[in-house]
Amino acid sequence: QKEVEQNSGPLSVPEGAIASLNCTYSDRGSQSFFWYRQYSGKSPELIMSIYSNGDKEDGRFTAQLNKASQYVSLLIRDSQPSDSATYLCAIDSGGYNKLIFGAGTRLAVHP
Amino acid sequence: DAGVIQSPRHEVTEMGQEVTLRCKPISGHDYLFWYRQTMMRGLELLIYFNNNVPIDDSGMPEDRFSAKMPNASFSTLKIQPSEPRDSAVYFCASSILGQPQHFGDGTRLSIL
């Protein structure tokens, strides 16, 4: 069983809609959770971090964490074509600053 | 502030040659990570350092791969001898404990 699971997509949403990206993980000891965005041919770029249960909002992005269900999600409101990218979910492993990445979900926002 | 700096950006070489990838972490960051990314396997952690000391090299695929961090501002990843299956994008990232990792632009490696 993979440690971090993501639907590979592509997830296709119309411009202006809400995009919902999901991630499940297996390590109950994980304390830190991150969402990275990666454009084609570019490096991963941090867009959100979340450490406690609940929601965390930053502009059009909202991260949601439920440790009991081992589930973290990313909502993108008012999706734009420029949001089209692969979104990587990452969790810390063992508390040693070591991240485990999911395979990523490809998001396509069409005009 | 300067981010993580990697060189070269692209490397094309023939099978059997030695390849050296370089990384300069963000100043003040005491963790440094080397990743490899391929379409088939995604983003894989190869090795990481804390205060210049290797902490976990369990992701290094085989003895052909080696990594060093002689000081806080420089690290290398070497492949000797290189093989076509080593072709991938190699990323270096750095961080402070408990803080997110910041990635360099990567080195796109092609082994012919």
Question: Please, could you describe this protein's structure?
Answer:
The complex is a heterodimer of chains A (111) and B (112). With 111 residues, chain A is mostly beta strands. Chain A has no helices and eleven strands. Chain A has strands at 4-6, 11-14, 19-25, 33-38, 45-50, 54-58, 61-66, 71-76, 85-93, 98-101, 105-110. In chain A, the strands form two sheets. In chain A, strands 2, 4, 5, 9, 10 and 11 form a six-stranded mixed β-sheet that branches. A five-stranded antiparallel β-sheet of chain A has the order 1-3-8-7-6, with no helix packed on it. In chain A, strand 9 (85-93) and strand 10 form a beta hairpin. With 112 residues, chain B is mainly beta. In chain B, strand 5 (42-50) and strand 6 (53-56) form a beta hairpin. Chains A and B meet through strand 5 and strand 10 of A and strand 5 and strand 10 of B.
Tag the structure with descriptive keywords:
heterodimer; A: 111 residues; mainly beta; 6-stranded mixed β-sheet; 5-stranded antiparallel β-sheet; globular; B: 112 residues; 7-stranded mixed β-sheet; 4-stranded antiparallel β-sheet
The helix count of chain A comes to 0
The level of helicity of chain A is: under 10%
Strand content of chain B: over 45%
The fraction of residues in strands of chain A falls at over 45%
Secondary structure elements and their pairing?
The complex is a heterodimer of chains A (111) and B (112).
Chain A: E1 4-6, E2 11-14, E3 19-25, E4 33-38, E5 45-50, E6 54-58, E7 61-66, E8 71-76, E9 85-93, E10 98-101, E11 105-110
Chain B: E1 5-7, E2 10-13, E3 19-24, E4 31-38, E5 42-50, E6 53-56, E7 65-71, E8 74-79, E9 88-95, E10 102-103, E11 107-111
Parallel strand pairs in B: 2-11
Antiparallel strand pairs in B: 1-3, 3-8, 4-5, 4-9, 5-6, 7-8, 9-10, 9-11
